[in-house]
Amino acid sequence: MKRLAAALAAGALALGLLPGMAAAQEKKITVMTWNIPYFEEGFQVWVDEFKKLHPDFTVERIDMKGTELPTFYQTQVVAGTPPDIVDVQGGLWLEYASQGGLTDLTPFLERDKDYTGRLYPEVLANWEYEGKNYGVPLYVSKTLLFLNRKMMQEAGITKDPESFDEIMTAAEKMAGGEKTGLMTLNFDWLYWPLFAMNGVEFVNEAGTEAAFNTPETVALVQRLAEATQKGVIDKISWTGRWVEPNGAFAAGTVGMLHAHAPAYLWFQSKADWVNPETVGAINLPGGWSTPNSHALIMSKGTKWPEQSWDFMKIATSGAGAKAMGTGTNNLTGDRAVNEELMAYFAKEIPAVVPALETQFQNLDKLTGNWPFAKDAALKEAFYPELQAAVLGEKDVKEALDSAERKVNRVLSSR
After folding, report:
1. What is the model's pTM?
2. pLDDT tens-place string over residues 117-132
3. 281 shares a domain with 168
4. 397: buried, middle or exposed (CB in 10 Å: 19+, 13-18, 0-12)?
5. Are residues 400 and 262 located together in one domain of the fold?
6. Which label site among 33, 317, 347, 399 has the fewest CB atoms less than 10 Å from its CB?
7. Is 282 among the domain residues?
């Protein structure tokens, strides 16, 4: 965090401009996207619309892998050349916002009410920090439960699970040999709905100290650990990231997968057996889910805030949002556009419709999206202890006690 603060401060100093300097500079905005190099045609739609408003500007695009984007961005901040607009996922933006590295978009959103009115307020709220909004939704996804109906039928399961206990019971029935009953993605708090549906709170209401270390949580983690040791829950749930768990589900040996909607087209591309009859998509019991949406944010060091905002609006609403949806097979934050996109998917990719239909249901049950500036540090404090517990490497109570101490240390630090 201190290194990030120093980087942002150095970048701000490097970007200090004397009156009149901006006019002499090249009129260009730079947009950094997150691992969508194939999105060329859609990006050009954005550029063409932008140039109708600002014909004297050029647009540079940089596409980065998610693993490389944070380091590259900080390097550019230090050099005084941060991208004007950045596509981010998860809670990465919180660290930047807390250190003064991002532009507060609240005044723009309050001014341009026609644009703001197109967006889902519950989704837009995902990028609020200390009463200010720092991002607008580029594309929207949240977790759901994929069901391997072939394995369910073979196990004699005739109804979809409606509670955590029913999930675990179904998982036990489907497990055996090389088959496991349940798998979850684990990055960016994506596993947290399993805790939320059991009434576990991560922190207290004030957000000042851990609240998860209770007897009920100990019992829950013990149950997850025992199920993992028996092969009811696939161990890849706790060790893989994206390719490994989705690949395991594509192999047809996992009964249920807790993941976000983009996983469907990924594992479908790897498995001929996947179709609407063989894979179901439902909300988790209780409607709980963790969002894993992408947003566009604006660097504080941009020389062109008004022009950057115009580009962000174009990319996330109307024709620009539709280009994003059809170009990446996702839904967007624009309510009207999503109606068009669902009609498009029903015609062109009907198999993905059940998964997408869950994405704007139960928006009052989002979890794992806490607005902590030290989101990354909190993950590092909590998850390794949970991982050790569920993999049987550490006593559950000992692991949760350690996680509580580490989380409280992070929450109390300045």
Report:
1. 0.89
2. 999 999 999 999 999 9
3. yes
4. middle
5. yes
6. 347
7. yes
